[in-house]
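Is adenosine-5'-triphosphate placement plausible here? Inputs below.
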Amino acid sequence: MTSFDVIRQLILMIGRRSLGARGDGFCAIVIELATVGLGVSAPVLLKLAVDALDEGSAPSSLVMFYVSGFVIAWTGTNATTALKHIFTIRIIDTLARRIVLDAADSQLPNLARNGEGDSARLQGILERLPFSLQVVIDGLLWRALPLLVQTLVSLAIVAVLVPPRYVAMMAVVLGAYLIVTGKGTGRFQDAARGANEAAGAQAQTLGDVLRNARRVIFNGNLAAELDIIASRIADRRCANERVSRLIAATASMQSVVLALGLCVLLVVAANDVSAGQLTVGDFVLLQAYAFRLALPLGGFAYMLRQAGVSIANIGEALALGEQDRSETQLPASVSTGPAEIVLDRVGFRYGEEWVLRGASAHVASGSFVVLVGPNGSGKSTLAQIIAGLIEPEEGDVSINGRPLCDVDSDERHGLVLYAPQTIGLFNRTLRENALYPPTLASEAELAAILTDWGFYESGRPVDLNLEVGEQGARLSGGQTQKLELARLARVSVPTVILDETTSALDQASELRAIWTLREGYRGRTTLILITHRVAMAREADTVLFLEGGRLHAGRHEMLMREHEGYVRFCGSLG
Ligand SMILES: Nc1ncnc2c1ncn2[C@@H]1O[C@H](COP(=O)(O)OP(=O)(O)OP(=O)(O)O)[C@@H](O)[C@H]1O
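Reply from A.M.:
I modeled the complex. Tokens:
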């Protein structure tokens, strides 16, 4: 996305009725026009006052009128600028809200899929967004557009009030200024993109380290991690300095052009005043306009420096929101009864590496299935294929006779609920985490289940208002899993897959939890549990055993009789 595209898109967004920024944009433009009007009329009133004083014959009331008009126009611009700021902030908030929501809407499914996306980088981009919008809208748009209007109006007034050659001189100075600015801007655009990327890398590293505070501290690696953060900060400083150097070069050229141009203009005007071809008022008018334009143009260099990096940041945030967002629906609660699942020669590979080949199995409707296999044998991968979260490279999965590839991705969530190996808890209350959709559990049911499962060893009642902390840091590993299992005990979905959701439970708790789930799922849900426990395999209606990319299915006793690899595997579990 080029800088021009980003600015065009922002302007279109402000103008879009559905977004709600259009009214604020309109008010801001009206106020800006009033500011320009006041700013342009102040020098004219001053010229009239000076000419009247110079002539000496004008009535004093007229001089008073000109002088007070000049003061009011001059000071009035401060008030209108402050007023415009109120609307600008509202526009920025509205745009930031839309862009952040679009990006989150589009990126959350990517983050949910295996290994895709980078939450810390995303957070960095979106956190910098309001500041970037402030710089671009307040600093650039609200400066460039009024400056353009003010320049045109000033030139028109100068053309009417003083000889036309002054308009030509001012136009030449402005033209030269624009050429120098355009060349400089083109050079620093790449550097600005680099500075934005360096800012992203710093946010990514910082977020990653902060999120893994326990890993860092418990392994005594604080100093090493601080070094890594420091090197990202240094990279960012380097990138920023490159932008600053390029901007400084451009700003110097701009100053030279302005200084030379204004010098020539005012020297010629002074000569004309001496020769009686211009009045003193004309001279005052010319210098007022010249400096009125020169001052904001000088500040423009600084804004361009900030704006380049900010435009790159906004472009990145806009691009995030434009990516495919087809898989954003909440699991639809469908009650088609428990799923019958058929795997027909399913194959899958990550890159060149095949994880599964020719996997076939039949899972009876409403059964309890245990999926076992050595570490890295592909259990989570197969579970995600059954859940429709990843597409098999070969073969088909069908649920209740319907090939999963024919089922819309939103509908798939309603057929299979996959509970991933790592349970992410929100830093909210126990109640909010445990009653997270699509559970149908009431608070009372939830409390009863958790108490029955011995959530606290002492047997004390469960406090649903407990703040669980970041990633459930105030809960034990087993309590976190019990919370998740209690939530899932009351869902109405044809298939539930638990990816090692019972791994931290002691054997009695695991049996009890699975028993509760199976009772609740009777006639409604097929349950698949990934586990490393032989005891659960003995309980299962069907065992799916994965080894060396091959899938073997049957009851535990049958596999023990007929499959050497399975016997070895069960033996290794102890
Ligand atoms: N997103 C990914 N990209 C590349 N390779 C992956 C990805 N996810 C998993 N793998 C690889 O695929 C293989 C199977 O991984 P998977 O997580 O399915 O195994 P698993 O049987 O569930 O393992 P475990 O018992 O340790 O949880 C592993 O070698 C793993 O490194």
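Short version: The chain has two domains: 3-322, 341-573.
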